Amino acid sequence: MLNGKIKKIFGWSRRSRRLMKSNRDIDPDEIFLDSSNLPKFDTHQFEGRIVSSISKRSITFLAVFFAFIFALFSVKIWNLQVVKGSEYSARSENNRLRHTTIFPLRGVIYDRNGKELAWNTLGEGKEFALRKYLDLPGLSHILGYVKYPAKDSSGFYYNENYVGKTGVEKFFNDELSGESGLKIIETNALGKIQSESVIRPPKNGNNVNLSIDAEVQNKLHESISNLAKQAGFSGGAGVIMDARSGEVLALSSYPEYSSQILSDGTNIGAIKKYVEDKNKPFLNRVTDGLYTPGSIIKPFVALGALTEKIISPSDLIFSGGSIKVPNIYNPNKPSVFTEVKAHGYVDMRKALAESSNVYFYEIGGGYENQKGLGISNIEKYVRLFGFGSDFPEGFFSGKSGTVPNPEWKKENFTDQEWRVGDTYNTSIGQYGFQITPIQAVRAVSAIANGGKLVDTSIILDSPDGGAKSIDIKSEDFQVVREGMRGAVQFGTAVGLNIPQVEVAAKTGTAELGSDKKFVNSWVIGFFPYKNPRYAFAVLMEHGPSANLIGGLYVMRGVLDWMSANAPQYLQSAD
Predict the structure, then answer these.
(1) CA–CA dist 109, 209 (Å, integer)
(2) 184: region left, alpha or beta (phi > 0 left; psi from -120 to 50 alpha)
(3) Rounded CA separation 427/301 (Å)
(4) Where along the chain do the CATH 3.40.710.10 domains lie?
(5) Secondary structure (H, E, C), 426-486
(6) Quick one: fold of 214-272+282-570?
(7) DSSP secondary structure, 259-300, as one string
(8) Is there a contact between 516 and 388 (Cβ–Cβ < 8 Å)?
(9) What is the pTM of this model?
(10) What whole-number distance in Å separates Cα of residue 287 and Cα of residue 437?
(11) Is 402:382 a contact under the CB 8 Å cutoff?
(12) pLDDT per residue over 517-568, tens digit each?
């Protein structure tokens, strides 16, 4: 039996050698097959296992493979350390060192008495200061609002500056802004700050001192808003200005927005109401509101008539309540130009005081034996006072307005010629006439100071920007001033006849639309009368024509308040 096993073993060995000679490689299935045929071998003692050496071809393949891998890694290391070493070193350093903007403090805005109107507070979790505004109605159209620095979701500031959007914040943005600083923050692998180093310190913005008196400003705004609510006006505007320097003491546009709400930008509901409000709270009516002036234009037409010697101050014109002009298209139906009441015989002073339309129809457009200025001269003289012209560049620059003339009519009314009736209506501030309140106060300042059309300013003690001299005789200015004083003493502006200060004024009521159901109510003037210091203009916008109170009552309230709380403003100019 043993011999049989030996034979089998040797028989298998001989067969294996023959196979190895014919093929040096042994397939796994042959090993598995033979192993299964030898169940008695002790595999733990490696019985029945055939050991053969690895082929040279396999060794060569492995050597080439590992050499390739080594070369690949070597090239990569060379690229990282030598070729791009500086780049990755800088990138690594930037991961450790972070550049951060240091935001400057925006300049503080003060009124003429040193009261803070706009300042800064450090917000919780904010890298920059937040803007705060004095909670006093009437200041928003002066101060405006700001847009803050903003960053994206990754924390990168795509806007590093405060941006003034309107008002003083916008116009004086460069002065208020300052310059940003820069610091480097070093962090560890966990992102914790290890150290900070200021590379460039910030430069805070400059403060701005306004000519505005916040308390007078508030009273002016309060008077306008109260009257608008009580009498049904849709809005209003008012300006009080130093007639000598052009510095504005108070300025109000109603309705207004909140500077705080717009700067914060969080009260979406309130902002939406501003946008949807049909009374346009974003409109600065002082500079950009265009309004028919009505009778406040008469003093300037009077100055033109005196200069052109159309009439003397003492010449009388009879006002019977209307004049009739022949109608070439319908002789049986003459054109009638009326006024509220008959004034009888009036000279220039009385015509201004009582606001006689007939008097200004005749000196404006001519009638019977009375020569008129004509539309060319009317336009010439009202433009001398700034109406219909671009306002000087500055904080108050706005709309230029319209002075009607034949060219304007051709543009707006196709195939219609200019008629004498158009001249009549223009001479009393009607028809297509449009002005702004800031133009009105600047023009009446020139009457107050004797012919200097000053540049307006919102800055306290601002350098004299120059004044345009109007070539009209001082005695002619005096005639008009006397007529405006008469309006307060016995005419249309008696509501301003107060004992604390002598006021000169001219009222105006501009009829709106073809049905004339609504009016604009104006008052312009100056005080004190004998040595004028301040000029004023107040407009109440789009109120019922049946209303008997208007802009005059706004100014009366302000003057009464001044006499009790700020009498220094009622004193004569030096």
Answers:
(1) 6
(2) beta
(3) 7
(4) 214-272+282-570
(5) HHCCCCCCEECHHHHHHHHHHHHHCCEEECCECECCCCCCCEEECCCCHHHHHHHHHHHHH
(6) Beta-lactamase (3.40.710)
(7) HHHHHH---HHHHHHHHH-TT-TT--HHHH--B--GGGGHHH
(8) no
(9) 0.80
(10) 7
(11) no
(12) 899 999 999 999 999 999 999 999 999 987 778 999 999 999 999 999 999 9
d(CA 470, CA 467) in angstroms, rounded, equals 9
**Residue with tokens 């052009």, as numbered in its chain:** 246
Average pLDDT over every residue of 73-91 = 66
Residue with tokens 């234009």: 297
Q: How many Å apart are CA 456 and CA 13, to the nearest integer?
A: 122
Q: Which two tokens stand for residue 526?
A: 């100056």
How distant is the alpha carbon of residue 65 from its chain centre?
73
Residue that the structure tokens 């300025």 belong to: 251
Alpha-carbon span 426 to 433, nearest angstrom: 7
Residue 262: φ, ψ to 5°: -70, -35
Residue matched to tokens 């108070």: 250
Burial of 333 (0-12, 13-18, 19+ CB in 10 A): exposed
CATH superfamily of this structure's domain 99-209: Penicillin-binding protein 2a (Domain 2) (3.90.1310.10)
Q: What is the DSSP letter of 315?
A: -
The residue count for the chain = 574
